[in-house]
Amino acid sequence: MTTDTALKPLGDAILAEIDAAQCTPPSYDRSALPTRVLHIGPGAFFRAHQMDYYNRLNADEQKWGVTAVALRSKGTSEKLNAQDGLYTLIKLDRETSCEIIAALKGVKFCDDSSAFQPFKTEDLQLVTLTVTEKGYCLNGDGELDEAHSDILHDLKQFDAPVSAIGWLTKGLALRRESGLGKLVVLSCDNLPGNGEKLEAAVLRFADLIDAPLSSWIRTNVDFPSSMVDSITPATDDALIQRIQTDCGYSDAWPIQREAFTSWVIENTGVSVIKELADAGVLLTRDVSRHEKAKLWLLNGAHSTLAYLGLAYGHQSVAETMENAELRSLVRAMMRDEIMPALSPPDGMDLEDYIEDLLERFANPAIVHKLSQIAWDGSKKLPIRLLNTIETNRAAGRSIEKLGFGVAAWMRFIVRMSRAEAHITDPLADQLLALGKIAKDESDDVDAFLALDEVFHDTLRNDEEFVAAVKRAYTDIIKTEQKSLRGGSGI
Length: 490
Ligand code: CS2
Description:
The protein is an alpha/beta fold.
């Protein structure tokens, strides 16, 4: 990326010079923020979503300082630390707004032992995670995968953990050694029952390390569940360039999202969570209905749009929504096949929710790449589409349209494999090998259905499900051929 060297780089030194008409600078003094929140996984979603809430809370009381820990790459820490943890959040919608997020104190890489320091302080109240579905190292039953290479590594080298579960458990062990107690650990990933799953995984891991640690965690750590939502395209060169042009400084790691945001947290009565309500977080005893409606409708539709859109040669969600055939297929899938499987939270009208989602998907102000949503399909499909399919099959409801998302994922793998392209997925090698043996016949589907990590026996042995996916698979091949004739790419 070309950064304009004539422009000053974002950092504390230039905060006072920022033109508020172009970008809203922080309204608070950030110099003495305590680390009240420790976040694991400072990816795009965390920077666009949760950080915006803390930034707003700091306007009233400067106590929401956040330190983040990266487990996978050093890129984010290098870029953000060089600008004192400051970055620009641009909200792209009917109206555009731009602000500086100032609540991030710094980003450490997990191999830096000082990253554990906050666990040893009373200031720390909340540990949050956005590590994506695969970051929890769970098996197909949603339990800790004890054969996962990162978990095996961390069980052997507990002092230098590389997985989120190992790293978090190490931090909790240090908190216990420091004689400090009570902490809230909050998963902010699109996983059903994310709090329960995280708690079970941490307790299991702690059990394998040291049984008393596990019982200390049971008594001292709260793991509420949460639902998070805001459409956040990854940072790209176009965004970096736009901030330079619009704001008059250079920011190496800005973030973009839609204006809409939602955060629903299970109210277990702890005060740090209750305080988040002041920034618009919804507290409820029953997160699962919110989470299910969002995961099945928004994320289920997103994955379907991504794999089908790519088969048609589209690049972004908004562009796919302009394809009348796909838009009406996805709308019908949401209304006829997903909505009947849900019981909405009080006050939510699912028909309105679906229309709002379709409008959000069509937001012309953002370019949300289908290839970004297509990542990690083997982890996303079971919780976004297959759960709904199983529910519908058990209730005797249609799954015809849902089958398209599943078949389109299989075709995506085949095309990527033939193009010798890289895919981001924990099963990448296995999937690409399946893509290689595909013959463009409906029987290709059987090889995918044999993947135990993705499909349960219930579905694999369900003739109607298999037939629906095969019909969709054959249909999509015809579409690909037409797209190719029309000159579209993967
Ligand atoms: C998307 C989500 O990339 C994806 O898989 O479906 O990141 C989606 O944009 C968010 O969950 C919206 O809240």
